[in-house]
Amino acid sequence: MSETEKNNVLNQLRNKRNRKSVPPRQDALVPKPSVEAQAVSSETPKSEERSEPTNTLETEVLSYNQHIDREASQPTTREQEQEHLDDTITATSKDDSITELKAELEKYPQTKRHSAIVLEKDLSQQLTQFCKERGITVETFLEAAWTVVNSDDALVKEITTEAKRRYDQRKRVGQIKRLITMLGNSYS
Fold first, then answer.
1. Residue 151 has what DSSP assignment?
2. Chain centroid to CA 143: how far?
3. Residue 46 is part of which domain span?
4. Which of 85, 94, 124, 163 is in Cβ range 3.0-4.6 Å of 119 for a Cys bridge?
5. Is 41:33 a contact under the CB 8 Å cutoff?
C-alpha cells in the first residue's frame, strides 16, 4: 500500500466524526399543518371529535394528527435518529476497515520476537546511532542486511568467518568471567 493510500485510510478514520448531517427533507409526503391549525386542534377537546371521519381529507388529517401524536409521545428526536444512523454506518465502516486492514496485514511477512541480542558496547552504540540517523530500527537493519548478504555466497563466507572469530572471542570472555567468579567465591 502506498503512502498516499495509508494517509487516505487514516484520514477516513479521522473524518468519521466530522461528517455532515443530512438536511431535513423539504418534500414531505404529508404537508405539515400550520401553527394556527395545530393550536386549534390542540384546544379542541377530544370528546367533540367525531369518531369516524366523513371524507378522505378528514381521514388523512386524522391519520396525520395521530402520527404527530405518536411522534410527540416517543422520546426519539431527529438528532437521535441521525446518531443511530451514524453509529450504524460507523460500525459497518469500522468492520469494513478492520477487514481491509487485516487483509493488508496478511500480505506482509509475519514477525517473531527473538531473544535479546548482546553486542559489543561500542558496536552497539555505533549501530544504534547509524540506524537512528536513517530512521530505521536495529531489527529492520539486521533483517535487510541478512537478506542482502544471503544472496552473495562470497559475502556470506566472509561474514561467517568474522562471526566465528567473534564467537570464539565471546566464549573466551565468558570463561574468564566464570573463572574470576569461581576464584573470587573460593577466597571469600
1. T
2. 27
3. 3-17+29-105
4. 124
5. yes
